[in-house]
Amino acid sequence: MTSWNEFTESAPRISKIFERRHAAAGNLCMLATVRADGSPRISPMEPRIFEGGLWVAGMPDTTKFKDLARDPRFCLHTATVDTQVGDGDAKLFGQVRDIQDEALHQRFAEALFAETGFDLRGRKFSPFYGADITSASAVEIIDGVMEVVIWKPGKPEYVVRKVA
C-alpha cells in the first residue's frame, strides 16, 4: 500500500491536482464507502494531509466510519462545482487502517488547532484512519482536450486524451 508521501513522489500530477482542489474547496471532499448491504454511500469529508500521511479523521460513530470499520475500501473525490472541470478534479482509491497512536493523535490535534482553531486537543481518537492509496486518477482540460491522468502502484502516471 502507498502512503501520501510515496504517492506524491510516484504520482506528482495527480497529487498536485488533488491538493489544489482540496484547498480550493476548503478541504472538502466526498468520501465513498460501502454500506452493509453492499450499496454505495457518499459522505462529505475533510481529509487532512499530516506528517506524510492522508488522514480520514472525523466524528466517531458516524455511518461512514461504521462502513469503513466493516469494509476499509474507499474512494475520495475532490469536491467539484465546475461542470467544465476547468481547475481539474481528482479521485483517490484505497483502504483505511485504524492507527491507535496517542502521540500522533495529539500532534494531529495540535496542528489542526493551529491551522483552523478547531480544538480536539486532549481527546482520544477512535477510530483514526490513515489512508493507503491503491490507485488514483485526475482530470484536467488542457487546450480544450480532456486529459485523464491514471496511476497505479509500481507504475508511472499515464495520460489518456479525450477529444470532444
UniProtKB/TrEMBL annotation:
Q: Give the source's domain of life in one word.
A: Bacteria
Q: Which Pfam families match?
A: PNPOx_N
Q: Cite the entry's keywords alphabetically.
A: Oxidoreductase
User: Is this entry keyworded Amino-acid biosynthesis?
Assistant: no
InterPro entries assigned: F420H2_bilvrd_red/Heme_oxyg, Pyridox_Oxase_N, Split_barrel_FMN-bd
Report the transmembrane regions from the record.
none
> Which intervals hold domain Pyridoxamine 5'-phosphate oxidase N-terminal?
27-111
Name of this protein: Pyridoxamine 5'-phosphate oxidase family protein
Q: Which organism is it from?
A: Nocardia acididurans
Q: What is the lineage of its organism?
A: Bacteria, Bacillati, Actinomycetota, Actinomycetes, Mycobacteriales
